[in-house]
Design brief:
Elements (H helix, E strand, L loop, with lengths): L1 H13 L9 E9 L2 E8 L7 E7 L14 H9 L3 E5 L9 H23 L1 E11 L1 H12 L6 E5 L8 H4 L13 H6 L15 H11 L2 H6 L26 E6 L7 H14 L3 E6 L13 H18 L1
Parallel strand pairs: 3-4, 3-5, 5-6, 6-7, 7-8
Antiparallel strand pairs: 1-2, 2-4
Length: 314
């Protein structure tokens, strides 16, 4: 049962796609050496200029894919009149976190520069939405992107990547059978890649990192115990100012992957600095609580997401 529970947590966090997605157009927004890094664009027919949802997948920065946007959520966004741009980015540990953040920045700049002519996007009305590690990347957009997005929506994201929850062995994941070191490193490689679709062995590396408390070292290439200040540029919690965009946080209080307290901390910092924000607590919600939009609690939360974005983008 423990292995089954782990699978549920990881799959829910990724938000694997279902059938019946809206039509899409795929573009290469950047090349890194010989690697093409792509984005999928979804929109209603017609030439109306529309605001943009810039969507970032989860997967612990180690796995995941631009196709992991759930189709029930995607359809709601598109039907509400948004252009949805779902991006890939290079993955760790083959690419360190500074390269990943560069990809997010370059994708955002591409949307603003090329979006108006390629898919009738309004470059001045962009909201960033992400889940889990994508929620973390969403929060980094609040201080790393210029001009800043109109709004941010972070589903179970996090504000610190070097705190004990990530830099020490995790109690929940340590209940799972230990992943041997050799198996963990055999599940990743040395060649850079962007997007890892479907369920794959890269999660064995993630599980190993959580069991050993090695995620910050493997993703950032720095040791939080000996170089704590090196993580400051990568931690949204250390970069909140009054100029942070309006932000909506959603988090289940029974999350066993990303501590609920990570969103609580961000909400407290937003309050301290006078940043417009909302914080939706999902009582009893696990990691990936939004995997069933038909659940009344989830449906209500998603309506608040749409209302938040409409207030800031339309």
């Amino acid at each position: 049962m423990r292995n089954a529970s782990l699978l549920v947590v990881l799959v829910a966090g990724l938000g694997f796609s279902q059938t019946g997605a809206p039509p899409k157009q795929t573009y290469t927004y950047k090349t890194a050496g010989d690697l093409a890094i792509e984005a999928d664009v979804y929109r209603l027919d017609g030439e109306a200029v529309r605001p943009v949802i810039f969507w970032i997948h989860g997967g612990a920065l180690i796995a995941g894919h631009r196709g992991n946007l759930r189709n029930d959520q995607l359809r709601r966004y598109v039907d509400a009149g948004y252009v949805v741009v779902s991006i890939d980015y290079r993955l760790a540990p083959e690419t360190r976190i500074d390269g990943i953040l560069d990809d997010v920045r370059d994708a955002y700049q591409w949307v603003r520069r090329e979006g108006p002519k390629l898919f009738h996007a309004d470059p001045e009305r962009v909201a960033v939405v992400g889940h889990s590690a994508g929620g973390y990347l969403t929060l980094t957009c609040g201080y790393r992107l210029t001009p800043r997005p109109r709004a941010l929506v972070s589903f179970y994201g996090y504000g610190e990547i070097d705190a004990p929850w990530y830099s020490r062995p995790d109690p929940f994941y340590s209940q799972q059978p230990a992943v041997p070191k050799e198996e963990a490193y055999a599940s990743v490689g040395k060649t850079e890649l962007s997007g890892a679709p479907g369920r794959n062995q890269r999660f064995r590396f993630y599980l190993y990192c959580r069991q050993q408390g090695l995620w910050p070292k493997e993703v950032a290439g720095r040791d939080p115990d000996t170089e704590p200040r090196a993580f400051d540029p990568f931690c949204p919690a250390r970069n909140v100012t009054r100029d942070f965009p309006p932000t909506l946080l959603l988090h289940g209080d029974k999350d066993t992957d990303v501590p609920f307290q990570q969103s609580e901390q961000m909400a407290e910092l937003f309050e301290k600095h006078g940043v417009e924000h909302e914080f939706i607590r999902i009582p009893g919600g696990p990691h990936g609580f939004d995997s069933r939009i038909s659940d009344p609690q989830v449906g209500e939360a998603f309506e608040r997401v749409l209302a938040f974005m409409a207030r800031h983008l339309k």
